[in-house]
Amino acid sequence: MKRIGKDLRPVLVCFMVMTLLCGVIYPIFVTGIAQIVFPNQSNGSIITITQENGTKIDVGSALLGQEFTNPEYLIGRPMGASNLSPTSEEQNTLVQERVAGWHVLDQNNTGDIPMDLVTASASGVDPNISPEAAEYQVARIASARGINEDAVRTVISKYTSGSFLGFWGESGVNVLKVNLALDGLI
């Protein structure tokens, strides 16, 4: 019986030390560094607007996609994570349904629908679309808002980010920021 107590003590001490290190000290350290180095990102990249009466409201995160469906807005990628194979019948059916939806929404657009408008991202909450997907929607947005297509392109250009370090990844257009700018909120 004494042997069990003697063997158990080091295990419990190790458990407590590791819990303190990995469960308390390390998360506090990493959170502190993130707050100093990347304060906006570590707090969710929340976009806040000030209303006419001076009240500030949070309208969303620049890092998470939000669903827009009205014709006067830039529409992002389909919501919901997908781990379907690109060759699966279920994926093909979803893509065809989404293509049909785009044809109903924008009947005058005969261009090829960019793939990112009919396929979900791996996370299902991608906040960006490709510049090609944004350009595909310019005429519809301009028509729905009664503005010039170049005005829409100017807003899209303002919220288009290039690839990381100029070569890593692809350019992206932040859907939420474009829509807030089109509404004159940012």
UniProtKB/TrEMBL annotation:
It comes from the Bacteria. The keyword Transmembrane helix applies. It is a single-pass membrane protein. The chain crosses the membrane at residues 12-38. It is found in: Cell membrane. One of its GO terms (cellular component) is plasma membrane. InterPro entries: KdpC. One of its GO terms (molecular function) is ATP binding. Belongs to the KdpC family. The system is composed of three essential subunits: KdpA, KdpB and KdpC. Part of the high-affinity ATP-driven potassium transport (or Kdp) system, which catalyzes the hydrolysis of ATP coupled with the electrogenic transport of potassium into the cytoplasm. This subunit acts as a catalytic chaperone that increases the ATP-binding affinity of the ATP-hydrolyzing subunit KdpB by the formation of a transient KdpB/KdpC/ATP ternary complex. This is Potassium-transporting ATPase KdpC subunit. It comes from Acetobacterium paludosum. The lineage of its organism: Bacteria, Bacillati, Bacillota, Clostridia, Eubacteriales.
